Each structure stands twice: as C-alpha cells, then as structure tokens.
C-alpha cells in the first residue's frame, strides 16, 4: 500500500502544480492548497513504510514526468524526441527504484 500512496501523491501533484500556474480565484487557490495537503499527506503515509529518500525520488521523478506529459497533451507544450528520451530515463529510474526497494524489508520490527 505504501507504493500506492506514492502513486497517489504523484497524481495529486499534477493538479497542484497546474493550480500553482493557472489559479486566479480564491476557489481555485483553495483547491490548489487542498491538493498540496493531500499530496504531502500521501507522502507522509508512504514514508511510514518506505525510506523517505526513495519516496521523495519516486514522487518527484514520476510527478515531473507526468506533469511534462500533461503540458504536452493538455497545454500544447512543444514536444521533442529528446524530451521523450529524458522522460523515459525518469520512468526507468522510478521503476528501478521501486524494483530495488522491498516494502516488507522497510517495516523493520513492526
């Protein structure tokens, strides 16, 4: 479940990063703030079972890749093959970290 929390944090990160850029009204800023709170709540929950460095690396890497994809497809940002290559490197790194971090090993004496 800890990896699920990391995935949720990265998913919610997309909304608050977009909110930081495009919020104009009080309601939009409130939604952005709520998204930030949920994102960090999910990170805290994940850190209860996984090393915080691993959680942070996966969260920022997957969030950055997802935000770039949203920028390209939703906000029509420029696409280049070199950008796709770097996104692929991020995804490979995130998968590699997940594969080498065993959730059961991190629970210690629980």
What is shown here, in short?
The protein has 5 helices and no strands. By secondary structure, it is mostly helical.
What's the structural blueprint in terms of helices and strands?
Layout: H1 2-22, H2 26-47, H3 52-73, H4 81-100, H5 103-106
Note the main attributes of this structure.
5 helices, 110 residues, mainly alpha, 0% strand
Description:
The mean pLDDT is 89. The chain has helices spanning 2-22, 26-47, 52-73, 81-100, 103-106. It is mainly α. It has five helices and no strands.
For the biggest sheet, the summary is: none
Helical fraction equals: over 70%
* Average pLDDT, all residues: 89
Q: How much strand content do the residues show?
A: under 5%
Work out the number of β strands.
0
Looking at the structure, what is the overall shape? Answer: flat
What gap, in angstroms, lies between the N and C termini?
Answer: 15 Å
Count of alpha and pi helical runs: 5
Structural class: mainly alpha
Uncertain segments are: none
Order of helices and strands: HHHHH
Gyration radius over CA? 15 Å
